[in-house]
UniProtKB/TrEMBL annotation:
Species whose genome carries this gene: Nocardia aurantia
Residue ranges of domain SGNH hydrolase-type esterase in the record: 8-183
Protein name, entry field: SGNH hydrolase-type esterase domain-containing protein
UniProt-listed Pfam families: Lipase_GDSL_2
Signal peptide interval: none
InterPro entries found in the cross-reference section: SGNH_hydro, SGNH_hydro_sf
Length: 204
């Protein structure tokens, strides 16, 4: 393939936390699996970091990503907003800014929606779990509008049967397990390849 570079912004899931831990302490998560599946040899810029919110991406990661543009750009962020720091207006504003800044001619931007994390998080009171379910549903509905508006490639984790399998998740309920990262990365790579093929066959 001619496109051999990838830039990713996001949180600890983008970072690869929960995936295989390398000798240097870094994580081999779904981004690494994407590069393997698509035959990407570099350069790779993964800005994902633990605890990052959409605000962190806008302030700290987005300028770096825009300085390192790639034919393939990934965005995996929002879970920390929804669970710990939720301001609906700020959340929507940040998501729109992130995607509006990254999309461009001859560029493919991919993401995922937010799976059923509320029911996986341990130790929550049911009342707060219900609040989180509503937040996640609202966030996914808004993401759907951005996917349509910006022609994003979005892997549907909400309706993926495999996401209901406990083997997919770490005990914290938030991060994919090594198996989960591999499955998500492979599914994303397959989807990216499919969309690229369609765009070549049906240029816009």
């Amino acid at each position: 393939m001619s496109e051999n570079s990838l830039t990713v912004v996001g949180d600890s899931c983008a970072e690869g936390r929960g995936g295989i831990v390398r000798a240097d302490g870094s994580f081999a998560g779904f981004v690494v699996q994407i590069t393997k599946s698509l035959g990407i040899s570099g350069p790779l810029v993964n800005l994902g970091s633990f605890g990052a919110t959409t605000q962190d991406v806008v302030k700290r990661q987005l300028p770096v990503a825009l300085a390192n543009p790639a034919p393939l750009m990934g965005v995996i962020v929002g879970g920390n907003d929804l669970v710990t720091d939720y301001d609906p207006e700020r959340f929507r504003r940040n998501l729109r800014q992130i995607y509006a800044s990254l999309v461009g001619p001859e560029r493919l931007v991919f993401t995922t929606n937010w799976p059923n994390i509320p029911d996986k998080l341990p130790g929550l009171e049911e009342s707060f779990r219900a609040v989180l379910r509503a937040r996640f549903a609202e966030a996914n509905a808004y993401l759907d509008t951005l996917v349509d508006e910006f022609d994003l490639v979005c892997l549907d984790l909400v309706n993926a049967p495999i996401c209901a399998d406990p083997v997919m998740w770490c005990p914290d309920g938030m991060h994919p397990s090594p198996a989960g990262h591999q499955l998500i990365g492979t599914a994303l790579a397959d989807l990216i390849d499919e969309v690229r093929t369609l765009r070549v066959a049906q240029p816009r």
